[in-house]
Amino acid sequence: MSGEKIVEGCFAVHKPQGVTSADVVRTLQHHFNPSKLFKPWLEDERARRNRESNNQRRRRRTQRLDVKIGHGGTLDPLATGILVAGVGKGTKSLQNFLGCTKAYETTVLFGAETDTYDRLGKVVRRAPYEHVTREAVEKALEQFRGKIMQRPPIFSALRVEGKKLYEYAREGKMPPIEIKARPVEVLNMEIVEWYEPGTHEFQWPEQEMAGDEKAVAEKLLDKDASLPITEAAEGEAAQTEEASSKRKSPPADSTSEENQEATKKAKVSEDGAAQTSAPDADADAPNPSTAESTTKVEQPEAQPPAVKIKMTVTSGFYVRSLAHDLGKAVCSSALMSELIRSRQGDFELQPDRVLEYKDLESGEEVWGPKVQQFLEEWERKRAAEAEAEAQAQAEAQD
Asked: 31, 304, 310, 395: least buried by Cβ within 10 Å?
């Protein structure tokens, strides 16, 4: 690496389990700031700021100069897979990843449902599962393909009148308005593997709700028990949210992204990191509830069945909601046990196409050439697209 060329654009990171999307951005920034690869970018940004007016410089007085980095679609801590990162001018392209199609692979475990609809939450209630077969699940999946109406998880970080939905539940209150279903589209969905009882290691969470907290949770889940409606009304569009998180504290064990409308431009946080996210499958799952009103779950003697499903979906689709609704569709309960985002837009989860998160700890000599290659490929692709568009416009004018 010569260290002379300014590299910027978008690339894919393979996010591991247990790390928030905001943590990934902070870690990238931590390694990029002192690097040789991004030294030209920082020098150019410093020179640009020096050319600003006095008023602009005063507003930036307390703002640190960091490599501008953001992400284009949240993955919650449970999920792994593609997280698109934008660097420099690449952050302006992150909005394109909010509305693109995405591919996921998830494992659904039957017999119990949680406040977060996944295995990181508390069990709200359990249901019979002995009757759940692969054939029953195959038949139930038919109603989840195509254009459907889907409700976001009741226990999510979506805001209602300034407060997150799961905060109402933890205060023992019902949300002031009904959470409406939104139109989404499932382009394809199929079973990858069926796990008979006793053939897998997936388990329900160890903690179960109790007392008032459980009573409110059950009311909310009962209110959300309706299944998707096929053939969504034409002309309706699923709302999308964007999340921005500011680095005011070290990485926490909670999801720090908060949903806002995706029609807004990607905000730039106080440290210069533009961060955007979409309310995908995996987005904004709240942390498991506190230890209050909790009992320990006894794992069943007869293990419940599980199923691995792969799907391609449009923006705004929640895989957690799919798992929850699928349990209802087979007259049981279910939760999301695993989630992998295998594709987002043109980015696919292939070893030579993504930056492994662990590579960052190996030093710039390991991650530097990879990131440089990814960003240069991005620039070449954008240049080719711009040239093709210009040529098409010229031909249209002839």
From this structure: 395
CA distance 332 to 322: 13
The yes-or-no answer on residue 76 being catalytic is: yes
Instruction: Record the tokens describing residue 325, joined without a space.
Output: 């609704």
Q: Which of 23, 44, 66, 76 is catalytic?
A: 76
CA dist 124 and 208 (Å) reads 6
**H/E element holding 15?**
strand 9-15
What is the sign of the dihedral through the CA atoms of 45, 276, 247 and 348?
negative
**Predicted structure pTM score:** 0.80
Task: Collect all residues with Cβ–Cβ distance below 8 Å to 81 and sequence separation of at least 6.
Answer: 14, 15, 75, 104, 339, 340, 341, 342, 349
Closest CA to 77 of 120, 132, 123: 120
Do 298 and 112 meet the contact criterion of CB atoms below 8 Å apart? Answer: no
Is residue 75 within 8 A of residue 25, CB to CB? The reply is: no
